[in-house]
Amino acid sequence: GAVVSQHPSWVICKSGTSVKIECRSLDFQATTMFWYRQFPKQSLMLMATSNEGSKATYEQGVEKDKFLINHASLTLSTLTVTSAHPEDSSFYICSARDAGVDWNEQFFGPGTRLTVL
Amino acid sequence: GQNIDQPTEMTATEGAIVQINCTYQTSGFNGLFWYQQHAGEAPTFLSYNVLDGLEEKGRFSSFLSRSKGYSYLLLKELQMKDSASYLCASMDSNYQLIWGAGTKLIIKP
Known about the structure:
The complex is a heterodimer of chains A (about 120) and B (about 110).
Chain A: E1 4-7, E2 10-13, E3 19-25, E4 32-38, E5 45-51, E6 57-58, E7 67-73, E8 76-81, E9 90-97, E10 107-108, E11 112-116
Parallel strand pairs in A: 2-11
Antiparallel strand pairs in A: 1-3, 3-8, 4-5, 4-9, 5-6, 7-8, 9-10, 9-11
Chain B: E1 3-5, E2 9-13, E3 18-25, E4 32-37, E5 44-49, E6 53-57, E7 60-65, E8 70-75, E9 84-91, E10 97-99, E11 103-108
Parallel strand pairs in B: 2-11
Antiparallel strand pairs in B: 1-3, 3-8, 4-5, 4-9, 6-7, 7-8, 9-10, 9-11
């Protein structure tokens, strides 16, 4: 089956530092990847849609200069949280759609738990 | 606007049956998904409906009525491991998933 990995699984950082999260599709190519954020006891919130070889599409209210997304290859998208602050502490989840099939399922990575001190 | 509604929390007994309802309003429609999410973990795919009717997959079944903007997830022979949040998501015309807030299912012995 389609597998998506995320790295790191969890990260603790100091306020003001930048954190990079990687999302990889391991056994399929993904022209489109999605980045979500989930706060405790809340549903998934789509932050941005990452398109291979082009700029990401950000949802309303998400600062593109703070959450930098790069989708440089068909199997890798990265999310960089720049100058992280405690309010950025959350569970970040990526998902990917298989470009090779006519099927709408999004395959989710295991998530990255970010804690900003 | 786009909206997904599902109950916040439900409680059921081990071995019983539970139905989790979801109503949706999205710009266009490319299918209705159900995901299971255990605390601290990413969602895992359960089912996908794009045509009206019931899709059965083992203990889990999902139903869709496009004319009513309505779906339900039916869980049979409940097990303690089924305690989780169940997320309903509608895929809109841009192939983006619009998520419900999730239904926390509590299973009691």
